[in-house]
Amino acid sequence: MKFGFRKPSLKKRISARTSIKRQVVHRAGLKMPRGYGWIRNPKKYVYNKAYNRTSFDIFKVLKKLFK
């Protein structure tokens, strides 16, 4: 598990936005409402919940500083 700030990866950011799986799910109308991730994949939901609480994005910190 990661503690502290996350290292940004431009490659991962682009691939997440342009993935085929994401496009198919989005266009087929199979999107779950926000907050229902635990139904689709409970193990991933628990991991992501803990990860997001123990780490932070450096860009969000910078954004708050210069707001």
Structure explained in plain terms:
This protein is mainly alpha-helical. 63% of the residues lie in helices and 9% in strands. The longest helix is centred in the C-terminal third of the chain and has 13 residues, at 42-54. It starts with a strand and ends with a helix. The model has no long low-confidence stretch (mean pLDDT 85).
Write the layout of secondary structure elements.
Elements: E1 4-6, H1 10-17, H2 20-28, H3 37-40, H4 42-54, E2 55-57, H5 58-65
Parallel strand pairs: 1-2
Give me some keywords for this one:
67 residues, mainly alpha, 2 strands, globular
* Oligomeric status: single chain
The total count of strands amounts to 2
Helix content: 55-70%
- The poorly predicted ranges are none
Domains (count) = 1
Q: So what's the overall shape? A: globular
Number of helices, counting only DSSP H or I runs of 4 residues or more: 5
- Please give the radius of gyration in angstroms: 15 Å
Biggest sheet statistics? 2 strands, parallel
In short:
The chain has helices at 10-17, 20-28, 37-40, 42-54, 58-65; strands spanning 4-6, 55-57. It is mostly helical and 67 residues long.
